[in-house]
Amino acid sequence: MRRLWNVCGTIVKYSGLILILLFLLFPIYWVLLTSFKTNMEAYRFPPTFIPVSPTPDAYISLVTKHNDFFVYYKNNFIVSGLTAFITSILAIMSGYTLARFHFKWNKWITAALLGSQMFPVISRMISLYDLMGKVHLINTHTGLILALTAAMLPFTAMLMASFFEGIPRAIEEAAYIDGAGRIQILIRMVVPLVKPGMVAVVIYAFLMAWDDYLHAVTLIQNDSLRTLSAGVALRYLGELSYDWSLINTISIVGMLPIIVLFFFFQKHMVKGLVAGAVKG
Questions:
Q1: How far apart, in whole angstroms, are the C-alpha atoms of residue 166 and residue 154?
Q2: What pLDDT score was predicted for residue 280?
Q3: How many Å apart are CA 192 and CA 214, to the nearest integer?
Q4: CA distances (Å), 216 to each of 154, 206, 276, in order?
Q5: What residues have CB less than 8 Å from 147, skipping those under 6 apart?
Q6: pLDDT tens digits along 216-237
């Protein structure tokens, strides 16, 4: 009887997991499905769960007729890559400082970093736009990269600080006695020990920059400088009608870098986030 209950419990557990997985994957399935429909079939009601006549016309049209999409795509790679790189460097330095240099204002700095995450992004857009205008960084990738880096730095700095606090001080003290400087210790000894945290920070920063819409649409008005989310929203989403096949094709192509990133680095990212949650 007990064995029967265990079997039933296992069946219920895995059935629930399968249902949750199907629920989470259905939007991706529907986007992929619609990208192979004609636009008339995409508007059909009731909807078809399998295309009547699958066609790659939307993909062909995207490649041959919509060169502006690939301009947005390239800009997204530039902004996301540079944002991830700069954020990771600053997060390493600031996280190491928070973890190793304790002074009377340390708690207040940590509280300020935590408090900055409580405010919605839109609450700072007016002041951010005014500040960027004063330093002539409106309509520049530099201004957008700096804004995204500033938005992500508090969280990434605290994340890296948790990793550094998990590294024994004895390692650094031994290297210091042997004559190594603080920078040498950080670069040659400490940073290699926190690679999972660095991977987590880089992936997090890249994903947040890749999906960003509010900063991009606020700070960039020049169409040739727009990133993917802002460019697609302003060019391909009409007021009265949408080309749903094309829009879903764009969504699939836009998801590809994220899927590849998770495919290769998912294990490292999960390991990094979990390891950073435990001190000592």
A1: 19
A2: 43
A3: 35
A4: 20, 14, 30
A5: 128, 132, 215, 219
A6: 988 998 888 899 888 888 887 7
